[in-house]
């Protein structure tokens, strides 16, 4: 992250030129959402959480290991809905269990929307989805102090495309530890 | 030229560094039937210039949708002054107006002499000499476009204004976001902020000196205000939850915004002097995208309190909000025209999302665009055009449409997504 004075002149121009030359979007991340396996957590968030885990000396990352962060970290929503679909209740329960077993661990619930509709309104929709997950965790007994919500609206799509399949993969809440 | 300021100088420096390849380019997609025919003769001496002044003027006028410049091939003579003009020639070409001129290089300074002629009245309407350095020639051309546009239409020209916009390159965890400013015709773009986290909702201060925007650079959304000439900025808000949709009051002293610190997004107004915050709305819904009426007495905003997004108007006098959009199931992100008697907004129909205009006296709504992924309308300071974001394939591009929908153009970028255009105020 960097910001630049508006009147910085030639240096800015040259760095911009370099940047423009380097910024073609060669490889997209479409593959990361294959099978909706829930690997779409925010990059920095998941990276730091892995560091923390190894620091605590826990072992393994397979599902079912109660000391590991549940592998499935993304749940999906129907169009214009913030209700938890039954097939994702087990995912939420696994995270609830993990958080209760690790009261010093925090999680950020990242709420996302598909691209349809205006951007600021979609921030609200993403937040509603994350709040629905937060509420579920709360009912399961997770302390509210462990949970934070950040809505990205439609700003961080997991996949591109103007089709229902793409939209479905973008309407999501990601557990970012 | 006296209108130059610090950041224009910076932009011109960039131009010299060869940034043209990264610029947005204009594609006229629809011309108006009512466009006024005008002949713009290439200025004598103008061919040798790095910026061909006549071409820029011609492009400006055509882009406005109000003018149809005569094709260069149709010119039967190339006068450079009114003394050399045979009006009958131009009457035969059905050209209502004629622009002639000459450019002289006088020791590094350019002296541009131009005249606007009424072909049917056989009369000189405008004659002026503009002096300019080589780096200011684009600005000078836009200035000339402004003068011609105003002389003929009676409406102040907005060709010397700027647009701010956001770009995004990549997908998933590897998106790079930038905030940019360019001339209204897409040239001279300059990046003023870049981040690996989303940047949203740029909003010009009424004096054109600052931009407010939303940046997620800390991992959470915050509203920032950045001074465009110094680059200095302040993080204005960092409340829990959404910090979004900044909107300047017409006097520049307050910023309306959407904050969800109390549970769901509500409209607030912050006094920029005292930083005091006043909450305007109280609903269980999403209330966002505030916009001040030009007279500062009311704000419009988007709310889904009725079950789907619609636009409401909040009166600062009696502190009441009333729904003002009733056509269709999705109306959002309203923006006033400069007179305050109409709003432009995003509306959804069976085909998708379009830009629409609603007359506030009759409540009649007109859809202006036939593309289906339109959002983020922003109105030119003279009210004649609306710039917006749309899609070509899976790429975000900018489009613009005249206030009556009769003319439109696109501003494609060479790479990445371009979105959230914000048209500057007049920058004088």
**Low-confidence spans of chain A: pLDDT under 50, at least 5 residues?**
1-63
The number of strands of chain A is 5
Which topology of the largest domain in chain B does CATH recognise?
A: Neuraminidase
Radius of gyration of chain B: 23 Å
Q: Roughly what is the average pLDDT of chain B, rounded to an integer?
A: 91
User: What order do the strands of the largest sheet of chain A run in, or round the barrel if closed?
Assistant: 2-5-3-4
Taken from the alpha-carbon principal axes, the silhouette of chain B is globular
The fraction of residues assigned to DSSP E strands of chain A is: 5-15%
Largest sheet of chain B: 5 strands, antiparallel
Unreliable stretches covering 5 or more consecutive residues of chain B: 1-21
Helix content of chain B: 10-25%
Structure description:
The complex is a heterodimer of chains A (177) and B (428). Chain A has a domain at 36-54 and 67-128 and 142-177: 60s Ribosomal Protein L30, Chain: A, CATH 3.30.1330. Chain A contains 5 helices and 5 strands; from the N terminus they run βααβαβαβαβ. In chain A, 38% of the residues lie in helices and 13% in strands. Chain A is elongated. With 177 residues, chain A is of the alpha+beta class. Chain B has 428 residues and is mostly beta strands. Chain B folds into 2 domains: 32-153, TolB, N-terminal domain (Rossmann fold); 162-423, Neuraminidase (6 Propeller), CATH 2.120.10. In chain B, the strands form 7 sheets. Chain B has a 5-stranded antiparallel β-sheet, with no helix packed on it. Chain B has a 5-stranded mixed β-sheet with strand order 3-2-4-5-6, with helices on one face. Chain B is globular. In chain B, 54% of the residues are buried. Residues 1-21 of chain B have low confidence and may be disordered. Chains A and B meet through strand 1, helix 1, helix 2, helix 4 and strand 4 of A and helix 1 and strand 9 of B. Chain B: InterPro entries: 6-blade_b-propeller_TolB-like, Tol-Pal_TolB, TolB_N, WD40. Chain B: Its main location: periplasm. Chain B: Part of the Tol-Pal system, which plays a role in outer membrane invagination during cell division and is important for maintaining outer membrane integrity. Chain B: One of its GO terms (biological process) is protein import. Chain B: Belongs to the TolB family. Chain A: Residues 46-56 have a biased composition (Low complexity).
